[in-house]
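Open question from group meeting: does this chain pack into something compact, or does most of it stay loose? Before anyone orders reagents, we agreed to write out a predicted structure and look at it together. Recording both the input and the output here so the notebook holds the full record.
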Amino acid sequence: MKVEGKGKLLKIFIGESDQWHGEPLYHAIIKKIKENGLAGATIIRGIEGFGANSRIHSTRVLRLSEDLPIVIEVIDKEERINAIIKVLDDMITEGLMIVIQDVEIIKYAKSKDTKYTVKA
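Structure tokens returned:
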């Protein structure tokens, strides 16, 4: 079964070494997203990037960077994205960035008459 509709893509740009109450910020954000019942989220670890301070973080330097770029992506309905931003507001500090984009969503789901399941 194919479900289509409009939604929002939330991208949160942080650093790998950013912390929230003693744990990696990316992990704390994922937990909040899950607790608030959003459809899902993905954390992407970058191989190179720079941010507000213009310092390049890279896997190419002799010593591996301990602060590689992290992007957390979440796709859901507009009202759910707006609600999670309010929850995450305290966690996102100076130098970090959030981007929201309009998206068309095509979701493939198991229909009632399908006899098979997809295993991860």
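Observations to bring back to the group:
The chain is about 20% helix and 40% strand.
The chain has a mean pLDDT of 83.
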